Amino acid sequence: MKKNTLKYSFFLVFFFLLIACSTKNNTFLSRNSHALSTKYNILYNGGIGLDKGLKSIQGNNQDNFWKMLPIEKMQVDESFADDTKAKNADFEKAETKATKAIQKHSMNIGGREKNSQIDEAYLMLGKARYYDQRFIPALEAFNYILYKYPNSSNIYTAKIWREKTNMRLGNDAIVVKNINKLLKNTDLKKQTFSDANALLAEAFLNLEKRDSAVTKLKIAEEFSRINEDKARYRFILGQLYQEEGKKDSAIYYYDGVIDMNRKADRKYMMHAYAKKAQLYDYETGNDTIFIEKYNKLVADRENRPYYDVLFFEMGVFFDKRKEQENALEFYNKSLDRKSKDPYLIASTYRNIGNMYFKNTDYTMAAKYYDSTLVKLDPKSREFTFIEKNRKNLDNVIKYEAIAKRNDSIITVYGLPAPDRKLYFENYIVELKKKDEAKRILEEKEKEKLANVERNTKADNEPTAVNPQSQPGIVPPGVGVFNPPSANETTSTFYFYNPTTVAYGKLQFRKSWGNRILGGYWRMASSKAANDDAIAKEAAEMTQDSLNAIKDTIVIEKYTTDFYEKQLPTTELAMDSIGKERNFAYYQLGLIYKEKFKEYNLASGKLEQLLKNNPEEKLVLPAMYNLYKIYEITDPRKAQEIKSKITTNYPNSRYAQILNNTGNDDLALPEKEYQKWYKLFQEEQFDLVLDNIDNLINQYSGDEIVSKYELLKANTLGKVNGLAAYKKGLENVADNYPNSVEGKNAREILEKQVPNLEKLDFTTVDAKNWKIIYPIANEDTKTGKKVEEAIHKFLDIENFLKLRTSIDRYNKTQSFVVIHGIKSEAYANDLAGVFRDDKKYKISNKAIIISSDNYKIVQIKKNIDVYTAPKIP
Description:
Radius of gyration: 45 Å
Number of helices: 38
Strand order of the largest sheet: 4-5-3-6
């Protein structure tokens, strides 16, 4: 009976405890049991997931120190959709735990929450969603805390997190309003106060109110108790002052980051040193102290992960100091570190490319610019700028090669015969040295390969086997030269050790040479040795004979005649080479001036052009461009050039522009161009062609010339057909490659012209046909008569709604065309009516042609091909 009482008492106690812990009962036991279970079980595990997810974000989000750092490290991925589905497993776990805590342990009694940990659960829920970049659901969680738990100890934290979420949603003005209100009316803890000011600073930055942002970020840095945040805030303040050009303030905050040393992540300290290097004053700074400091940083083992940055900044230092050898050395050291920072690699390649460009090694510069583009973001402005320069560099390489080659030819051609011969002989001496060095290098490589092959063969020869070994058992190392193994037992028998066997073979060959296995090999060797001597002597004789023959053969490129024969032999050829050289110098001057803003290089090329006695059409444009360059670099020289133009060429367009006495047409080339382009649209091709060359000469050297050249190409295409059009486009593309017109011409040549050239007459039954009557352009009487006859017919019987026109074919011929015919048979019948009917009596030969073939005739100007007799 007593046992039964205890048994039932136990169940009763358990039942009452269960009732007491119900979420519906507002008792001390119920409140505290649910709070403890929520905090130390569910929220603890959720917190572990949240921390793990946060660490993964911080690890994956690599800071870009080349740009302004965001105040909050988390970077938003724009490709993420702001939906309700979790993307990170750790945040999903935290969200699940927070939801579980709310669902199972919430004690909402009488409209108020009795579990003191539920606000923590909602805060965790909001944070998990925020870091998972689902900002709208996160905002709902934070708003719920503010709505349901106004007296919560986390109320201010929840307000800050709500505004962080608002900022991510683009509501920066609301953030500023609410955080200012919070700071004004509330006494916050220091870290919470710091977080609020940091958030406010980031909102001000988004609103482009930098002064306000700096003020708030200083407060955040001062009150922060987290060293990582403190270092970040100082670094950002340094960046803000650096962008404003306040070097002293920027250096002050970078020094503040450096002073923290190991208290924060070392990356802030190392990039602070890099930023200070960028702010170094090359006029007043102490180079010795600068170099000593960076050598000390390099010597510190802790800085090894940042060698790529340190070496790059040292390269920049020597680059600015014009010490190119040292700069190149450090740039290459930076590249050797295999940095994970793509922009650092791109910057290094770019700087090396710039060095080669300044040294006029354009081929190498182009290679480094190519490498730069691979590492740059294709959407960035810098990518567009370097890509444009890289394309322009192709033209620089082309024209520099032409100028260098033609200068060399002209120089050598102008030498007296003895001096020219001496020049070639000196060149041949240098060429032989280079070829000999190349031969020696090749022989060394061959010898290396031969040694490798010989050793491989020696290693693969079968080694001796102990005749006393058991059948079927192969001792270690037999058949192959295996490396010694730590697990193998060393054998004392000579032939069991492959190393000693191989060594013995080599020593035997060294002492005795190759011997045939025989009875008493030492005695038999005399004959073999004698045979070897005879063979060796024969080989030496053969080699001597070959050398003698080789000495009698003179390689052509080692003779002066070889080069003499390649020189031009006529003044006409030399004149052509000179013109090509001069045009290359002119193009280089324009490219350096307009595309690269390298005014010294540009003026050098144009000055050299004027010394080369160029053709008249290049003189004035070169002088005018020199004047524009010297206006920027040397005003005194600009006035000298201006005086020469106005004095020696007073009636030229350039003199009138410089004196401000030109009429509107001269001062506004674009206006003149539009006038001629309108005539082209009106199909007054003869008038355009009669004047276009004069216009090109008049505006020679002006950017408008490329437009006139393209207009000329289009006009020639209309008059003379596809072949003339192609030739005109090639002229524009080759002579004006940097202009918009030159690039358009090149694109047309590559994409459209090949398709036009493939067009051919078709024999497919077409649905649209034409009748054409060829008429000489001068014979207006016949043309008018044919047109009147056709109109007479159309006025009477035009039930098919035919129409007529006069189409220009070429410079001497036009077509009277009847359009709208639906079949070849009807076209033939109609042509017969015009030929035989006395009312019309058109004696001119009619040509029946489909609309598709007519287009080809007008494009290629090949009506003769169409009307030629068809060979079956």
